Amino acid sequence: MLVTGPRTRAVRRPRYPVTREIDEQTGLGEAYMRSLIRTQLRLAAGLCLVLGAVAFGLPLLFEVFPAVREQEVLGAPLPWVLLGGLIYPWFVGVGWWYVRQAERNEDDFAELVDRSERSAAEER
Amino acid sequence: MSAAYGLAGVVLVVVATVLIGVLGVRISRTTSDFYVASRTVTPLRNASAIGGEYLSAASFLGIAGLILAYGADMLWLPVGWTGGYLVLLVLVSAPLRRSGAYTLPDFAEARLESMAVRRVASVLVVLISWLYLLPQFQSAGLVLRTVTGAPVWAGGVLIAVVVAVNVLVGGMRSVTLVQAFQYWMKLTALAVPLVFLLLAWRYDGAPGLSSDVPPRFDDRTTVSVGLAVTVNVTAPVQVVVDGRVDGRDHRSDPMVLAAGEHRIEADTDVTFPAGADVPHVRGSPVSTDRQWMLPLDGRDHSLYGTYSLILATFLGTMGLPHVLVRFYTNPDGRAARRTTVMVLSLLGAFYLLPALYGMLGRLYTPELLMTGRADAVVLTLPGRLIGGLGGDLLGALVTGGAVAAFLSTSSGITVSVAGVLAQDILRGGVRSFRAGTLLALVVPLALAITARSLAVADVVGLAFAVAASTFCPLLVLGVWWRRLTVPGAFAGLVAGGLLAGTAVIVTIAAGPPGGLAGALLAEPAAWTVPIAFTVMIVVSWCTPGRVPPGVARMMVRLHTPESLDVDRGTWRPRRV
């Protein structure tokens, strides 16, 4: 085998495929799983925070600033325009964005596992 | 509305449902396996089926009725029912599909490896389902009475019989095929009449709702009271009564209704002069049109009520028994997410409509505030605004849509609860499934006939509150938190179920008391959900030794994409 760089500076490659590390629940496998779950949880929690801010913020806004709820947009009161119309396309948009991000996280994870699998195969 | 057209609408939808159900059995018998077959279903059809099952009588009739009675605060109801799907998408959709669980008790068993938790989950599924079915049957009675004058119990019995026949003949398979059709049926039945109603409204000069007076009868109006009510009269008014008021018989006699409460018996006609204030049924708030248009005006504790409603609906959706089953028809976790987004679009499109019905109802059918039948606003408007043959046909369409709403939701819930009853409470097998089906229908039907009449969306709201206080913590912590323990999950389910269940029973049996206590009981989610989460987390912290041994493998199963070849464990849901 031809070594083209100093071995010490290279990333420590796992000796087995990561799927096997995950299956055998080794420390490394668990670390991979934890990082996946943490990434997905961060995405989900961030989104829930935004959703919560809107859902809990709007009534508060209407309560604290009565002028806001009496505001008229396109001939209808603002609360009706927001809650009766605009919030639905916003939900769908947020949903699509979430699906794309979550799938990207999964693709990244799969690629990470695959790449280490290939390099483990090369080393053997 | 003429009875013939309304009845035609009811019969048409019932016959179509039974036909598709029976036909569906034949189609699905040619495929080796229902689940394999369902995987060839396109996401749009799958999403339509989910939407069709989800949009119940509470969505079709109840929202418009509550908006008519309470105004802008109730706009949160459809928002929450849609937002609930967004929360479900973000927190649990893909992991739930990947778990392979078919019912909520399945998930509890798979994740916690405990039969005790599974049993508590089963009991909760049955209770939530009964709570969900009860108002469906009650409003079926209302619909059939409104269109044909049949006694109130008849509608509930009709729906229960049709659902029982469909489920018993075809089981799971026949029900699935009907749902997609029924989403589009419901959307059409609400959208098409609305176009004509809005045209009629414009033709009428597009009157608004910004005056500072409560609703009034614009013209001399005769109100037919079908079921006895107690109403509140704000100012003395000269009326003509044909029937029985305050215990006295009248034969088209003029009389003065003094300010205060009056008891109007069933089948009484009261004729009000033009310009009279509309008396409100006892317990319904009297608000001016301006207050009605604005959120947080008029009701006591409306900010608390709004927050509690938001919490119950956003978090309760994921815990409904008939929602999880539908995830199983997706091929994998990713498809489950994509389908859920499509469901969001379908629900969003549908929920744009009921608020407009509520607004038109405030303008043109204010007498529903007096008869206490605000739920009937969607059915009453076409005949009132359009009239003639067109009004009759549109009325028949709306009636058909309402029947579709009862049938699809009731079928979906019945199938899921019958499965749970058969598996976990009876002995299992096909005979238990049949017995479970009957049990699933008979109990709520009996309750619907004996309990006092309740606003459909209110009771469904309570079912959401119970789901949010029990299954939401179980699912969210189960999916994301490794340290959830068996005693923790058990204690959380029991605490949430007992607290929310007690609030529900008090509200339904006795009606909520006044003041803050009443608000806390009628909208319990704001305190029961945090308590359930806290109990589940704290008890888990205190019992670190009882973390299920297979949790690491389960986490792999829930979160890794299907493209990776990893060991996901061997757990499979049991089949009925």
Automatic annotation (TrEMBL), chain B:
Pfam entry (one): SSF
Show the GO cellular component annotation of the record: plasma membrane
**Gene Ontology biological process terms, A to Z:** monoatomic ion transport; plasma membrane acetate transport
Location(s), subcellular: Cell membrane
Kindly list the residue ranges recorded as spanning the membrane: 6-25, 46-69, 75-96, 116-133, 153-171, 183-203, 304-328, 340-360, 393-421, 433-454, 460-481, 488-510, 525-547
Annotated membrane topology is: Multi-pass membrane protein
Keyword Cell membrane assigned: yes
Q: Name one GO molecular function term.
A: symporter activity
The UniProt keywords, alphabetically, are:
Cell membrane, Ion transport, Membrane, Sodium, Symport, Transmembrane, Transmembrane helix, Transport
Family according to the record: Belongs to the sodium:solute symporter (SSF) (TC 2.A.21) family.
State what protein this is by name.
Cation acetate symporter
Please report the organism this UniProt entry assigns to the protein. Answer: Actinomadura syzygii
